[in-house]
Each structure stands twice: as C-alpha cells, then as structure tokens.
Amino acid sequence: MSKNETPRDPNEVLDEYEETLDSVLAEVESPDEATEDDDISLGLPGLSLGRRDFMKAGVAAGAMGSVAGCSALTGGGDGGAANQTTESGSSVSHTVEPGEHDEYYGFWSGGHSGELRVIGIPSMRELTRIPVFNTDCATGYGFTDDTKELLEEGGGYSWGDNHHPNLSETDGDYDGEYLYVNDKANGRIARVNLTYFETDAITDVPNMQAIHGCCVLSPDTKYVLGNGEFRAPLPNDGTDVKNPDNYTSLFVAVDPESMETQWQVKVDGNLDIVDTGKEGRWAISSAYNSEEATDIQGMTRDDRDNVKAFDIPAIEQAVENGNYEEVNGIPVVDGTQSSSLNQGDRPIVKYIPTPKSPHCVEVGPNGDYAFVAGKLSPTVTMIDLDALADSSDPEEVVAGRPRVGLGPLHTTFDGNGHAYTSLFIDSQAVKWDIEAAVEADEGSEDPIIEKQDVHYNPGHIQALEAMTTDPDGQWLVSLNKLSKDRFLPVGPIMPDNDQLIHIGQGEASMELVADHPAYPEPHDCVFAHKDKIDAKKVYDKSDYEETYITEEDSGVERTGDNSVHVKMTTKRSEYGLPDFTVQAGDEVRLSTTNIEGVQDIIHGVAIPEHDINYAVAPQDTREVTFTADDPGVYWIYCTYFCSALHLEMRSRMIVGPAEG
Amino acid sequence: MSKNETPRDPNEVLDEYEETLDSVLAEVESPDEATEDDDISLGLPGLSLGRRDFMKAGVAAGAMGSVAGCSALTGGGDGGAANQTTESGSSVSHTVEPGEHDEYYGFWSGGHSGELRVIGIPSMRELTRIPVFNTDCATGYGFTDDTKELLEEGGGYSWGDNHHPNLSETDGDYDGEYLYVNDKANGRIARVNLTYFETDAITDVPNMQAIHGCCVLSPDTKYVLGNGEFRAPLPNDGTDVKNPDNYTSLFVAVDPESMETQWQVKVDGNLDIVDTGKEGRWAISSAYNSEEATDIQGMTRDDRDNVKAFDIPAIEQAVENGNYEEVNGIPVVDGTQSSSLNQGDRPIVKYIPTPKSPHCVEVGPNGDYAFVAGKLSPTVTMIDLDALADSSDPEEVVAGRPRVGLGPLHTTFDGNGHAYTSLFIDSQAVKWDIEAAVEADEGSEDPIIEKQDVHYNPGHIQALEAMTTDPDGQWLVSLNKLSKDRFLPVGPIMPDNDQLIHIGQGEASMELVADHPAYPEPHDCVFAHKDKIDAKKVYDKSDYEETYITEEDSGVERTGDNSVHVKMTTKRSEYGLPDFTVQAGDEVRLSTTNIEGVQDIIHGVAIPEHDINYAVAPQDTREVTFTADDPGVYWIYCTYFCSALHLEMRSRMIVGPAEG
User: Fold this and answer.
1) Do A488 and B530 touch (CB under 8 A)?
2) Briefly, what is this protein's role (chains A, B) (predicted)?
3) Which among B134, B639, B649 is the nearest to A137, CB-wise?
4) What is the pLDDT of residue A348?
C-alpha cells in the first residue's frame, strides 16, 4: 500500500483481526467453543491453520497493512531467529524447595482488585497481599478506625485501579522504604510502608480524573509523578462539559514524604505512561489522542501522537516564578503547545511526534534512551535523552526505531544490551539488541534476536530490577491479559496468566518456565532483591505509646451518656476482658493491644453481627468504634488460629437494654 | 502422675508450653528475634535444643503430663517409625508444565477473608478467587445491583469467616453442582454455583450466633447442616443476657435448593465441627465446653466433653409430630440431655463423653467410623456408627482410641486403610493404621506408622477426595496456621503455610514436596477431580432474557423527574454509547450486556469518582444503580484489558447541572 492510499479505519481492522484470531484459536484449541457468529475464515476459504501458523504464514499482512501506515507487516516469528520453545519439560527450574526462600520480592499491582500482591521470584508464590484502595476483611483494612480514616481522607472510595508500583530510590537504587502506586480510576496515589508492608498514605489528587502513568523521579525520589489520562474540564465542576476543546489532561508532582500535591502541568492530548531519566531532569510520557477526540474513531485517526518530555527543573522554575494558575489550591502550569512557557529556549514540555498512540515509555538502565512502544505501530521509538536537551525534533532525538512486531506495549531490560518488548497482538516477547537498533535503519527487523510465544496478549513485561541502573537479568515475567485454555476452567471470568521466562544474563535463549494464573488484574510489577527490603516482624511498641494497653489497663470506662471506651489486651488464648457490658445505643470505642512479643502470633477481633473483624499483630494496637444497637450476647472471638485453646479465646459482649 | 493427683490448669500448662516452644524456636532459628520477655529455659538450665530435639527428648513430658489426664506424653516423633524428611530436594515433583492442566480442583475456604479460593492440585497455583461473604472490587461483587441485593438479603454484612467448604453430592459422589460454606462470624451459610463459579445464595440463619461446623448430609445432599458454636440466649434479644445457664447452642438443617432454614436442635455445651455418615442417618458433632462456662478456665476444666450424634430421621419425626418450639419462625427441637425427646428408645441426640474438648470429627470413607480428634487429649476417638444405633455408651460405641501425639485436630484418609491426623502442638502429620487402632489397646501408639514434620501448627489436613467413599490418595495438604521463617518476611502479618505432602496410594512414606504461603486464613479445603466439575466459559444469554441488551437497545431513557435508565452494550474497544448525558441528582440505572460470544473476553465498567467497577463476562448482563451527584465529565472505562484499543474503550458520562 502506498502512502497515498486511504487507510482503512484501524479500529475496524483491529477488531476484525482480533476476532478472527480468537475464533481461529477457539476452533483449533477448543473446537466446541467457537460460536456461530465467529467469522473464522476472514474470507480465506479452507483456512485451517493454528494461531502460530496463521501468524507465520503472513496471512495477517493484508488485514493489518494499513495499521500505522506500515506497508509490509508480516507478523512476528517468521525470522530465522524465532525460538520455537517446546512447552513441556523446560530445562530450567524455578522451584524453591520447602523451607528455602525466594531470592527476589515481586510487587504486583492488582489492577482493579485495588490491592498489591507480593510474589516471590522465582517461585511465583504469592507471599501476601497488601490492601491499598480496596477494603480487606482478613486484616481489617477499612474496618479499624485508623484505616477507615485513611480511606476516607483518601477520597472515600472503596476501590481503586492500581497500575504502576514504584519503589523509592536513593542514589538510583531501591532503598526499601516505600512503594508508590497510582489509582487510575479516581486520580489517586498511595504509599505503602515496606517496613510493615502496609498502606500509610493515600492522596486524592485535585483536578485529575484518572492517574494512569506513575513513577518516582530518579535518582532520589524527589517526586512521585503521575499522568492524568482523561481529558476533562478544568475545574471539572459542570462548566464546559460539552465543549471538549476546553478539556485538558494534567501531569502531577506529589511530595514523597508529605504526600501533598506540589504542582500540575496541563498538556494537549491524553497522557498515558511515564518514566524518568536517571538524572532528575526528564520525565517522558507516552500519549495518545493528540486528535483530542471523544470517540474511538477520532482518537485513532492520526498516524502520530505526541510523546511529552517534561523538563522538571524548568517546570519548577515556572512555579517559582509564579507562572501558573491556581486551581483548587494547586499551581497549574500551562504546558500546552501554544503556551508561552513552551516558546522560549527552554520549553517546559517538549512534544515529540511518535507513531502511533504509543502506549508505554521505559527509560533504559543507563539512562541513554527512552523506549516508546508503538501500540498501533509495530515499532519501538528510542528517544535519546541527551539530544533532548537541545531539541525535540524527531529527526534529532529519535535514536532508533526497530520494527518489533504487532502491538508492542512495554519494554524491559537485562542490563547486557538487550531489550525485551511485549507484543500484545502477536502474543510474544521479542528480544532485541539495543545498539543494533541504533545502527539499523528505521523500521528494520535486523536488531531482533528472538521471539518467545506467550499465552496470551501480554501487557507489561518486567525483568529483575530492570528499572534500576543495574538490572539483574535471569528472570522475566510476561503479564498476559488472557489465559483462555491454559488452566482448569473456573467459569467465565478467567484468570490472567503471569508467565515466567528464563533469560539468563542475556546470552541465553528465552525459555518459558511456568504459567501462573492471576486474579484480575495484575497490571504491572517491580522486583527488588531480598537484601534491599528490611521488613519488621513485630511492631514497635513506641509507635503506639499513647494507646498501648497493658493487662492492667483492660477495662470499661463510660465516657458519656451513650459512649464507652473498652480497653483490652490480646494474648494467646485470652482477651484482657472475659466479658464486658454496654447498653444498647452506646457508641463503643474498642481499643486492643496484642501484648505478645513473638513473631507470627497474631490475634483477631471479630464481633459477630456487628460487621467487625481486624487483626492485631504482635505489639500492635488497633481501635474500632461502633454502635451497639441491639440488646443481646455477642461473643467476640479470635480469627487467627493462635494456640491449642484458640477456640476458647473469647470475650463476651453483653449489650443490655437502653437505659431510661 | 497418678490419676488422683490434682491436675495443673491445662490452660496454664499449654500457655507455658507453647510460649516456651516459640521462644526456643525463635532462638534457634532467628536468634535476634527472641525477646527478653521470653522464658526460654522453662526452668531447665542449659537448654539449647532445637524445637525438634526439644520434642523428641521428651522434655515436654513433665510440663504436659497433666493435659487430658495422660501420664506419659512424650511428644511425637520419638518412635522408630518417625520419618525425618530432608527438607530440600524432594524426590516427587508437583510441577505442572506450562500449558498443562492440574488434575484436581481444590476449593479453599478463605477464613476471615470471606472468600473462597480455587487452587489447582498438584501445582498449588491459585486459579481464581470466589468472593462469598466479602465484597470484591475486581469483579464488582457487592457493587452491582444483584450482588448488593444478595449480600443485603444475606444479612447486610461486608465480611464473613468461611470455614468449611462442602461439595454437593449425588449417590455419595461429587456432582459438581454446588459448594456450600459457612460463615462462622454471623451464623450464615452460602452456596456457590459451580457452573459459573459464583455465589448465588446466602442464608442468614435465625437464632444462631456463629455457625462453625458445616457439612452436607450424604449421600444426596438432603440438607446443609451447621453447628452453632456459641451459646447465647434463645432468642438473643436482650433477655437473660447475664444468665449463662439459659444460654444454648443450636444445630441447624438448611434446604440445599431453597436455602431456607428447615429446623434447629438445641443442645448442651458448645458445638464445633460436624460430619455425617454415608447413609443419611447420623450427623456427628464434636463439641467442647460441656461445662457451659463463660471463661477459658471453666471451659477447659473437665476431662471429657460430649460429642453429639444427631439422629436425622428421628429429628425429622419430632418436627413432623410438632414436638418443637417455634423461635423466629423456625421449629426448634429440644435435644438437650434432659429433653423428653432424648429419654425414649430412639433419642434424637446421643451424647458421647470424649476426651477432651475434641475439635474435629470426620467420618471415614466407608462410613464405619467417625474420627474425633482430641485437641487437648493426644488421642483420636473412633466412634462406631453401626454400634451407635443401639447405644451411646462409650464402652460400646468407641471402637478405638490411638495415641497420636499432641494437639490432634483433624483427620484425613487415603482410602487404603490409613488415617492421617494433624497435630497442632507437635507440628506434625501422623499416619496411622485404622484397623490396627481398632485392635490395639486404648491409648496405644502401636497403630502409628510414621510422622511428618510440618511448619508450623497445622489445622485442617486434607487428602484428595478424602471425604468421598473412594479417596484418591496421592496428595495431602496440611494447612498450617503459622509460617514464621518459611518465607521472605512480609511484615508482622505473616502468611499461613499450606504444605503439599506426597502420600502415594498409602504404601509410600509421606514426603514434604512444597510450601505455599496463603493469605489469612485458608481454613479448610476440599478436592474434586477435574472431570467432576463442568464450568461454563460463556454465560447463557437466556439467563438474562429480560435484561439482555443489544446494540440497537443502547440508549438513555428518562424514567422519572430524577431517574434515568441507561442501556449499553460492551464489546472489544467500544461501549454501545460513546457518551450520554444525565442531570445532577439523577438516580442512574446503568444496564450493560457484554455481547461477545468468545471466551475470556471480559469487559469492565469503571466510573471514576462514583465508586463503581464491575466485570461483564461474555453474554452476561449486569446492572448498577447510583446517584450522579456532581456536575462534570466522567469517563467510564474498561478495566479488563480487552484489545489493542482497550485504552480507547470509553464512554463519556456528562452530568449537567440539576434542572429547575
């Protein structure tokens, strides 16, 4: 197809293409699942190929030819370097024997489950969950007074869509202090304390509809940065609702200690993913919808979208100079293309046209390049961060643009010169040579080293410590959005599939080692060597100096006509109070301290028919306030099996009739 | 110690014992973790043994000698048959290669997480979670109108403590239709539909404080049976709250189809776990607190507690004869020891004194015996179910009582004549010969075949299909309450540890194969061969005949001055409406149908700043009703990554100012 032909609607092409793939796949792998509505032939009579053959035979080329204006897409895996892994009997083991520890912590964002998951690498075992934007009755997150308040002050929502977990850095390496993660749904950023593995702050960022991209500013976590994805009126208060020309997207900087919003930058188009250079100057955001449309056809019309390069010191200077508008208390700097702040020698935001609706940006280990995956272009665009200081002209800042395959979304690194890009449409991980891509012509497939099938439709892809200046190689995880037939059927809502791939130090061929089903939706992950995390096993009593309760403190104090304060300890087999009495209608403040000093001896405080349960770990103190509405006897019991007399560990709450 | 010596308070002894173990363990395994408060010597100067040596050396014998009146407890593992497994390098693999399926479904109750977990065996991978008593923002359980209503009608709580999952049976085998599970906290029973793997009913059982034991009546699921654990006034309405003599525990039968409560039986003492014989007559409940005390010292005073054998046909006859009191609409039959219904030839409940605060009862595969674990006695009491028809005299119905070790809690079976009992205090699984136990003297250790260390403090223990008439052997899972040092540290709230043990067909030695961390609290599990479950991958459109929405239906209908009904389809990349407008204050009923026919193409409906997210699986229809309070633009987006244009899949909800 020549450049002058009218391109087909890419949305239409993609729909057709993916539906065809799905039905071919369904027919081949589960013949009885293909529905009558599926057009499995795509107008190609007699087609009876499997999904891989289908890709390799280049059948897709015609259908996809118009996407991103590329004339000769042949799908992935047709090069001689393609690695056709035998699925069974991998030669590398990821087994961690009983009693042995994993070598790496993996922190998985849980997507719209609202939680984080801590997964051991290489075993892929889930070590724990950390509730963040969700509520969690196992630990009492969202049930105790402190966590209720945290969620209330963080916007009052009971869910979130956490996408991008980021570890705090000192001198460019993980310092093990905090993890920051965004809520795409409600425009929030949360912080998780890695000493106690619990959420300790949630910031509901003003003015922003949906924070999608999220990262820390390397090398010293000066800011937590976030991309507001959805364009909306600013402020979004009901004015101008039907005038999309006046909608805007924002980029935000949040202080990592106070968790307060510092400033925002408004830009043209939608913002997507963000990463920073290693020297504290550049934050690079991928983007789509430079068309500023409100429907899918409009959003995908043009062949280029503007990647944004935020010049952090220049933005700080603009804020210092008072060059901003204050909206809902936040300084908002104008970073649109027409802004005066973008006309001088040092624009605050550089716009770099990049094909096409590019989805992700990751900055490589040595900070040379930002890798921007094309999504609707089969290429990865490499932006030279040094050149960026002088120019935003694509001719000068684009260092390479290899053709990697269909639907490139994310890129990761082994630290030995290789990049690995996930291909959503091809369902592959493609390994390629970074310097060869710089040398090669734009759109060349020469830098490709090998391709590994994944199952199916990968989003993020992460290798060990790939986001640091010194990646560790060895293992790569492909976070695949679909699992289809890979696991025992569990009803219509199927798990995602996190696949573990061995990559060695980059010299080895990729080898698929394990499939791991994942509850929706493990969006992204980040890995830290076990030595970089220093988790405490027992709480520090001094954190609770004022509220810490001793056995002597256990008792009931009437604090008002209709309020009581109940204090009691927990230890193996016994609450500090075998019973206590309140009157119906009382507001009961129940304070509990676990006075045990031994690790892993946790106690629960469950109150039947009062919708209360929470955990109290050793030396921890937690409180809950509730109203005792109905007269009766309610046995408070321990939900953590703590001793042979665990069942007998109870306190009897007697609610007498209301007085008077 | 002779029988006539005054026994020490067992609670005191157990406390001292366990704390000592913990601190010894802490010192040996993590020297810096032992706190100053720990008395690591137990008055034994120079003690510097590991936990296993400590047990084997018999040091505990003195300290534990009074427990359950046993004179010569030596702890486990000192017999010649003890199997000292080398932890690393197990010879049996549980690996399931990429793309291969597990052979068994494991259904794990999630304890106070409120959810069920589906785990593949032997891989131990979590295939999915099924929210039951909790809310779940990943799928929208508790967010959509139908699931909100389900939880509201089920008591209105946002958590539960699910303990015992049970598969529905036909002719004594799993029929793959339903799973039933109890909520210990709020006295409820839920049903999970195994066609779609979702909760479809929750019954808030009247009159009951806490349903602990739960099972179905074999062989044809005539009832779901539950044990009300906590003694409370009946009705628990504020009368008699301070008169524990009038407190009572109830046993309940729920209809498995209508899920309505059929009848209850009140008994003496607390009820614990329940299982049924294979012929539909007997339900056997373990029990504690025959003392009917309200504190731990009182509850553990006596050396015997009464196991209850419920004669189901006899109870049905009593109900039919009108021999009941109606409380809150439920027929309550008097099954206390003094009841007239227990004085005749066919008592409705037989009381069998058993040592000591026995925790669990499991009926063996051929239905001959109920195995009652002693908890505070080191024995398992075998009750002969045939003999039970004629007598409840322990001399006549107790077929055997092997001494298995300290803290026996649960027993499982391999179908080849062996029982496996979990030892909470010894942290072991003990394998013993069932017929040898019948032959041996009471309290004999001769039937013991081997002991396997587990890590640490096991509760339930389950072998494959052990609760059917034809157990499959091969694998056994020990659900250990503590993990301590077994995994990378994740803060003070540590995971439980589910350990996979290979048992072969019973001829092999037990071999510990894998440790799997589990989020609190996997209480119990049940396994079904994959061929017994028939999960659908796409919903049946006819289930939603009235509400199913086609693309032509998509639109907005004003249904009142302040209410609108929005209908829209979902398919890859597009909602049926690119935008819609409502006015501030409108109650919005949003109905969505996923019109895709292909498996695993799920769409999400997330509404920022409105606390709404839910999944719509292929051919499913879900609705949510909310109030659009604040004017503004809100982009509804898809939370399931469904296509290369997933990010562009959005609908724009415009909330205009309130009219008038």
Assistant:
1) yes
2) Nitrous-oxide reductase is part of a bacterial respiratory system which is activated under anaerobic conditions in the presence of nitrate or nitrous oxide.
3) B134
4) 98
